[in-house]
């Protein structure tokens, strides 16, 4: 294979095969995405909060957070092998989800008249789909990058279009299967068949990409990250306060988007118990397929941050449209004819809302990835842009359950109590989050983006040696606090799962006894992890290591933390090392 191969007019076969696989995976996913929370609520009897927790926090959280790690594993074991495992997991997950009501009562020996808790099999199916989906994403994106040559922009443009074509295909097939066979059939037939076809394409047609992105094979060294380096990268990113502020602000932008698959389906079934949710949500991919090129041309002359801010404004406006329906119409349930469908007035407004949000997404989403490379610390662009989906993961993990909780508070509870339902505050709260996102972006662009990066080498992360200034200390404290939370959540979830399966309730006496026995772990793990940044911060203040243990003494610990936060470190070198703010000590 010559160096000139990527300059050929046609993309190689592996490029098109990868896009076909992506189309099938997205078709399988979006076939059921519109009805996941409805299936969990209406068919499996879960509360709106539980349904959106499973859909947003677990399913979407896995799909958009795990690629940080699964992409590294895919590089290690190869894309073809990884995709084979991924599609097997996805197919099995859809089969499980579609047949829960058939096999679970028999497994637990429940009688027909007894109310059954389907949480365990639902979580199993969702985890299979989530982990499998998280593997597919980096494999396909990696293949597109490696086979696009110097035409990566066009290659990813095609890739983005394919995603939305898959979305349209999946929803279309889902609609006809659902109206004839019911909601569970979406998983059993539509999603499973799409996934199995994808598995067949991976096994018999897909080939590993043979050359790297710029067309050089032998003349370029491609260094793969280890799993340990990928995990360490999480701390490097989380410890960069400026970058994390941008991530959080973008996460608020995506908070509105994730409501399309959490709050909006629940709302649609409230205003219309038989609402064809997948047809309503078709407005999103249809708008993107129809107008993406036009929008791209329109915004390409703008700066990335301007495009993102305006995109956030359009998305926020789209969400705000839902406030108008109850204010303008006395009866939002009154039905009107739209494209041959009889839908409520509130549903018509929601279609306009979804179309508007799709327009904002087209303006902002592509530029977010471009801007991430620009705001990343110099020399670490690759590392930081690898976390481009982190805001969407955070928005899903937090936004999903919040959407379910708002539905319960503003719609479900008043309706059950016989009180009038007022959805205006609910939509105002969500729109307000969009406004906060816009303000945060403006603050970042005008002020924070101009602050000089204080970047800490990854080699000093798990070390008590050296010094940390205040900004870097806060960043590392944040990253280690998040790690502590995650490490403690794992045994917590395992204990609850064991109790749920073998005892029938999540928080039994056995669970409480075991949890009490773990108190030592709950204290030691966070203290140990936080000791790394805390020791280095004390060193910057020229304080000895034993001061760390003052954190265990009430009142004194507050005073110590205030000193660490407010007092500038020693100017110039001290007995613990160089000044972290000195130019020669920056990395």
Give the SSE map.
Layout: H1 13-33, H2 36-43, H3 48-65, H4 67-77, H5 79-98, H6 100-108, H7 119-147, H8 152-181, H9 184-204, H10 227-238, H11 241-258, H12 263-271, H13 277-281, H14 283-299, H15 304-328, E1 335-338, E2 341-344, H16 345-375, H17 381-385, H18 390-416, H19 424-446, H20 470-502, H21 509-517, H22 519-540, H23 556-566
Antiparallel strand pairs: 1-2
Description:
- With 587 residues, this protein is mainly alpha-helical.
- It has helices at residues 13-33, 36-43, 48-65, 67-77, 79-98, 100-108, 119-147, 152-181, 184-204, 227-238, 241-258, 263-271, 277-281, 283-299, 304-328, 345-375, 381-385, 390-416, 424-446, 470-502, 509-517, 519-540, 556-566, and strands at 335-338, 341-344.
- It has a two-stranded antiparallel ribbon with strand order 1-2.
- Strand 1 and strand 2 (341-344) form a beta hairpin.
- Mean pLDDT is 82; it is low at 1-7, 211-222 and 455-459.
């Amino acid at each position: 294979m010559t160096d000139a191969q990527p300059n050929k007019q046609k993309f190689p076969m592996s490029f098109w095969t990868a896009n076909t696989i992506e189309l099938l995976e997205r078709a399988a996913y979006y076939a059921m995405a519109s009805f996941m929370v409805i299936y969990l609520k209406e068919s499996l009897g879960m509360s709106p909060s539980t349904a959106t927790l499973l859909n947003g926090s677990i399913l979407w959280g896995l799909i958009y957070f795990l690629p940080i790690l699964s992409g590294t594993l895919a590089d290690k074991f190869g894309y073809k092998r990884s995709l084979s495992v991924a599609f097997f997991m996805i197919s099995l997950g859809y089969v499980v989800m579609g047949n829960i009501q058939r096999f679970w009562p028999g497994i637990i020996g429940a009688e027909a008249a007894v109310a059954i808790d389907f949480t365990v099999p639902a979580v199993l199916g969702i985890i299979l789909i989530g982990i499998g989906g998280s593997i597919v994403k980096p494999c396909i994106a990696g293949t597109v990058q490696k086979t696009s040559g110097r035409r990566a922009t066009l290659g990813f443009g095609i890739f983005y279009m394919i995603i939305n074509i898959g979305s349209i295909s999946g929803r279309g097939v889902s609609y006809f299967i659902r109206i004839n066979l019911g909601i569970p059939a979406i998983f059993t037939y539509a999603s499973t068949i799409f996934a199995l076809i994808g598995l067949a394409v991976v096994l018999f047609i897909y080939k590993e990409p043979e050359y790297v992105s710029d067309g050089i094979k032998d003349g370029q060294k491609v260094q793969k990250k280890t799993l340990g380096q990928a995990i360490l990268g999480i701390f490097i990113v989380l410890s960069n306060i400026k970058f994390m502020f941008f991530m959080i602000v973008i996460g608020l932008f995506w908070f509105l988007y994730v409501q399309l698959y959490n709050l909006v389906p629940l709302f649609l079934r409230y205003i219309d118990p038989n609402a064809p949710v997948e047809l309503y949500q078709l407005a999103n991919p249809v708008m993107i397929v129809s107008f993406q090129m036009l929008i791209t041309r329109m915004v390409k002359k703008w700066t990335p941050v301007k495009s993102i801010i305006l995109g956030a404004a359009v998305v926020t406006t789209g969400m705000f449209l839902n406030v108008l329906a109850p204010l303008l119409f006395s009866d939002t349930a009154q039905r009107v004819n739209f494209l041959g469908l009889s839908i409520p007035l509130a549903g018509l407004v929601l279609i306009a809302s979804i179309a508007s949000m799709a327009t904002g997404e087209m303006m902002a989403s592509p530029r977010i990835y471009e801007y991430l490379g620009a705001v990343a610390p110099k020399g670490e662009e690759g590392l930081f842009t690898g976390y481009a989906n982190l805001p969407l993961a955070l928005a899903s993990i937090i936004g999903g359950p919040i959407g379910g909780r708002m539905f319960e508070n503003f719609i479900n509870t008043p309706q059950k109590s016989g009180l009038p339902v007022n959805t205006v505050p609910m939509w105002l709260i969500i729109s307000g989050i969009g406004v906060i996102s816009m303000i945060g972006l403006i603050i970042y662009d005008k002020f924070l983006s101009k602050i000089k990066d204080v970047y800490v080498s990854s080699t000093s992360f798990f070390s008590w040696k050296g010094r940390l200034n205040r900004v870097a200390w806060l960043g590392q404290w944040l990253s280690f606090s998040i790690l502590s939370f995650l490490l403690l959540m794992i045994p917590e979830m395992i204990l609850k799962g064991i109790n749920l399966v073998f005892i029938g309730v999540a928080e039994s006496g056995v669970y409480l006894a075991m949890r009490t026995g773990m108190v030592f772990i709950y204290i030691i793990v966070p203290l140990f992890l936080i000791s790394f940044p805390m020791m280095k911060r004390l060193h910057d203040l020229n304080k000895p290591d034993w001061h760390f243990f003052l954190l265990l003494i009430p009142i004194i610990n507050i005073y110590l933390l205030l000193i660490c936060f407010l007092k500038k470190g020693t100017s110039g070198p001290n007995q613990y090392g160089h000044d972290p703010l000195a130019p020669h000590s920056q990395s």
